[in-house]
Amino acid sequence: MVHPAASQEGVSGRLDMIVAGMAVEVSGSLLKTARLSEEWYEDLEDPQAFVAEMKRSGIRADLFTFWQRLPRTEPRHGYATEPETIAVLPVTTYEHWYKSQINNKTRNLLVKAGKKGVVVREAVFDDAFVEGITAIFNETPIRQERRFAHYGKSVATVRREFSRFLFRETLLGAYLGDELIGFIMLADAGRYATLTQIISLVRHRDKSPNNALIAKAVEVCAERQVKQLVYALWPRGPLREFKRHNGFEPVALPRYYVPLTYKGRLALDLKLHRGPFERLPEETITFLRDLRSKFYGYRYKSAFAALNKKPASPGQSS
Question: What is the pTM of this model?
Answer without folding.
Answer: 0.84
